[in-house]
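Q: I'm writing up a methods section and want to include an example of the input and output format. Could you take the sequence below and give the corresponding predicted structure tokens, formatted cleanly so I can copy it straight into the document?
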Amino acid sequence: MKQGTLNVAANSKKKQVVIVVMSGHLLLNFAGPADVFINADKSLQASGSDSGYDVIIAAPTADRKVKTASGMEIHCEFSAIDISTPIDTLIIAGNDFTELHGQAYQPFFDWLLTIGEDNTRRICSVCGGAFVLAKAGLLNGRKATTHWELSARLKKNYPLVKVDARSFFMTDGRSAEHTFELQ
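A: Here is the clean output for your methods example:
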């Protein structure tokens, strides 16, 4: 596979998981979810299953670079804006509030506007990733939560989002009944 080109086999029974890593945040915000899906895939393969997960770590920007809170720079193989194949699970991991409004992110927000029920089964966020989804309008009229320190800010900045500061996780939408399904 050529770097930056996504080509998923049409007959693959694996579900595509795209984790978009936002700049300036903790490694665990994307490494944790990636490890869970990668290890679930390994377990399914070891059991002889032909289903599983293709995990894609993507940057939100065209340069495919993400700088973490620790100062480490990660160069992702993919940019989210280049993904046009159907996505089973889209995870927005973290959020850098200083970068979020930068011009480099506009193509990413345009891409997020193409996300819908016809091409993405489930959308979720980790920590401040809820702000990214809210900015794109994907949380308007929906229940959402974020890190407890950020809940009041999410509620104030995005009044159309039904913020629940007491919840650790939140489900709202057609796949809510499948929240913990791993296959």
